[in-house]
Design brief:
333 residues, alpha/beta, TIM Barrel, four-stranded parallel β-sheet, globular, binds iron/sulfur cluster
Length: 333
C-alpha cells in the first residue's frame, strides 16, 4: 500500500527512479512529493461513456512518467504547467466538482501522485461518496500495482500507445512499453472486466470496467495495425476501444519526428482493420473536428475550447448510434 513515504524512494512507476521526491530530487516524471494539478473541472471531451450529459469530473495532474515527446497535453506533462495543491485543498475542490453533477471522478495521469489520490479516495469513502472513479492512464503502469489501483478505482481507461519496442524507445525512451502495457492491461481486464454499461449515446454512463484508447500516429499505421492485432489476440473482439485521430504536432515534434497531422487515409486504414477483426464496441473520432478539443492549459479556468463551444451548441460531440463505430471528440492522449 502506497503511503506518502513512497515518495522517499520512488518506485511508483516502471521508471523505478528510486529518488527522494520529498527532497530536491526529481525523477523522470519531473514532479516532487508536492501534489500539483493543472485543471479540476467538468470536461465534455471524453467519450460519451464518461462525459454523459453533465461532464466527466476531470483532475489533470502535472507531470507524467511517460514523457512522450508528442504528448497533446505537453503543457502539463512536459512543461509542468500547474499549481500546488494540499490534500485538504484537493478534497475541497473535488467536493465542489461533485456538486456540479459530474458523472465520475476522472484522474488523468494519476500514477506518480498515487499516494495523494489514495488519501483522497479514503476521505471520499468516509463521506459516503460513491461516484465512479476513473484511472485515466498511459498504459505504462507497473502490472503489480494494478491491484492496488483497482481497490480504489472502478474504471480503467488506459492507452495502448505502441506495439513496437523501437517506436516506444523513440517516443518515450523505454522499449519495454509494449510488454509492460500488455501485462498491466491483462490485470486491469482480469480485475474489472470490459466497460459497462456500453452506451454510445452517453445516456447511461460507465460504472465499471476497461476501455482502451489508441492514438493513431502519422506515418505509423503499421504499428497501429499491430496494436489492434495484439489487443484482439489478448482480449478478443469484445474489448471496448477508442481509436483516436486527433494527433497534432506539438513543439517537441519539430525537433524529432511526427511533424505532421494524421492523414485521413491512414486513419481509415486502421479503422478497416478494426472492422475486419470484428471489434464490437468502438469509439472513433470524426476527422477534422478534433481541434475543437485540443486543450490549452494556459487557460486554467477552462482549457477545453470544446467545453465552451458545447455551451453554445448543446449537441456538440453527439454519437451516431447506427453503427458499432461511433464518433467522439476528446483531448487526453
Ligand atoms: S513516479 Fe516519477 S519519480 Fe517515481 S519512479 Fe515514476 S518517474 Fe520516477
Amino acid at each position: 500500500m502506497d503511503t506518502f513515504d513512497s515518495y522517499q524512494l520512488c518506485a511508483l512507476c516502471p521508471r523505478d527512479c528510486k529518488v527522494d521526491r520529498t527532497k530536491d530530487s526529481l525523477g523522470f516524471c519531473g514532479e516532487s512529493a508536492t501534489c500539483r494539478v493543472s485543471f479540476i473541472g467538468p470536461h465534455f471531451g471524453e467519450e460519451p461513456s464518461f462525459t454523459g450529459s453533465r461532464g466527466s469530473g476531470t483532475i489533470f495532474f502535472s507531470g507524467c512518467s511517460s514523457q512522450c515527446f508528442f504528448c497533446q497535453n505537453y503543457q502539463i506533462s512536459i512543461q509542468h504547467d500547474g499549481r500546488t495543491i494540499t490534500p485538504a485543498e484537493l478534497l475541497t475542490e473535488v467536493q465542489v466538482l461533485l456538486l456540479k453533477g459530474v458523472h465520475n471522478l476522472n484522474f488523468v495521469t494519476p500514477d506518480h501522485f498515487w499516494p495523494h489520490i489514495l488519501t483522497l479516495c479514503r476521505a471520499l469513502r468516509e463521506e459516503g461518496i460513491k461516484v465512479p472513479r476513473v484511472f485515466n492512464c498511459s498504459g505504462y503502469q507497473k502490472p503489480e500495482k494494478v491491484e492496488d489501483y483497482a481497490r480504489e478505482m472502478d474504471i480503467f481507461l488506459p492507452d495502448f500507445k505502441f506495439a513496437e519496442p523501437e517506436l516506444a524507445k523513440m517516443c518515450m525512451g523505454d522499449a519495454r512499453y509494449p510488454e509492460i502495457a500488455v501485462k498491466a492491461l491483462r490485470e486491469m481486464v482480469k480485475l474489472k472486466g470490459f466497460l459497462e454499461p456500453w452506451d454510445v449515446t452517453g445516456r447511461r454512463t460507465a460504472v465499471r470496467g476497461v476501455l482502451v484508447r489508441h492514438l493513431v500516429l502519422p506515418g505509423q499505421v503499421e504499428d497501429s495495425l499491430k496494436v489492434l492485432k495484439i489487443l484482439h489476440h489478448e482480449f478478443g473482439p469484445g474489448l471496448p476501444l477508442s481509436v483516436m485521430s486527433q494527433f497534432r504536432p506539438v513543439p517537441g515534434c519539430f525537433q524529432k519526428k511526427l511533424k505532421r497531422a494524421l492523414d485521413p487515409e491512414e486513419y481509415y486504414q486502421v479503422l478497416k482493420l478494426v472492422e475486419k477483426l470484428g471489434f464490437e464496441k468502438v469509439y472513433t473520432q470524426e476527422f477534422g473536428k478534433e481541434t475543437d478539443f485540443l486543450p490549452d492549459f494556459k487557460n486554467s479556468e477552462d482549457p477545453f475550447p470544446g467545453n465552451r463551444q458545447r455551451n453554445q451548441t448543446k449537441d456538440r460531440g453527439r454519437q451516431t448510434a447506427d453503427s458499432n463505430i461511433s464518433k467522439n471528440s476528446k483531448s487526453r492522449v
